[in-house]
Amino acid sequence: MKKISANILEGKFEHLVDEENLQITHLQIKKGEEVPSHKSDKNVVVVIYKGKVNFTGENGKEIIIPGDIITMDPDEMHSLEALEDSDLMVIKARI
């Protein structure tokens, strides 16, 4: 077992785990900030645990709030816009 703790950030990101087949990133975005359209070569799981985010994917837009989870296949284009100060965990894995 290994415990990893996220830090309190000021609108940044940090890789909590950064391995060849697994990356776990703590993402903090302030209200009004955007993460431009991009994609990953891995499967992606996005878990929001604070705030509200407008998440745009290839199949449309979803407003996500704590308790929501987004899953994506490799190479899916997506972008985010924070509607409130928000904290997310982004898990990327080759499965």
From TrEMBL:
Keywords: DNA-binding
Entry protein name: AraC family ligand binding domain-containing protein
Sequence ranges assigned to domain AraC-type arabinose-binding/dimerisation in this UniProt record: 32-85
Pfam families xrefs: AraC_binding
SUPFAM superfamilies named in the record: RmlC-like cupins
Species per Swiss-Prot/TrEMBL record: Anaerococcus murdochii
InterPro entries: AraC-bd (IPR003313), RmlC-like_jellyroll (IPR014710), RmlC_Cupin_sf (IPR011051)
